Amino acid sequence: MIDDAILPGAGVTLFVDGEPVQARRGQTVATALLAQGRRVLRHTRNGGNPRGLFCAMGVCFDCVMTIDGLQGTRACMTRVEDGMQVRTPTRFESSEPA
Ligand code: FES
Question: Is 97 part of any domain?
């Protein structure tokens, strides 16, 4: 649940692995998911270790997800859009930067 007093801006709905997630325009995908309590954004290719928001400034690549079909998109650098499709890469997909 998003508190209107804390987060101004129009509400948008993005879909994460097919599930609707409410967010506010201006948020990044990573912060929208963190606000929903979701800390794991992907798993490493080798070992399947969980990764989530770490640097929040586009440097570490721990937050890469598949966003609107683009693999390896940094969730911390991508602002939410209404109807956006976000997918959590599995450990066997190549969303991790090479
Ligand atoms: S959290 Fe480091 S690049 Fe997104």
Answer: no
User: CATH code at 17?
Assistant: 3.10.20.440
Number of domains in the chain: 1
Per-residue pLDDT at 98: 47
* Cα-to-centroid distance, 41 and ligand 1 (Å): 10
pLDDT along the chain (98 residues), means of 10: 60 95 95 94 88 96 95 96 92 56
Q: Are strands 11-16 and 85-87 parallel, antiparallel or unpaired?
A: parallel
Tell me which residue of 75, 92, 94 sits closest to 84, measured CA to CA.
Answer: 75
Q: What is the pLDDT of residue 64?
A: 95
Closest CA to 42 of 51, 34, 32, 33: 51
> How many CA atoms lie less than 13 Å away from 16 in the CB half-sphere?
19
| Residue 91 CA to ligand 1 centre (angstroms) | 18
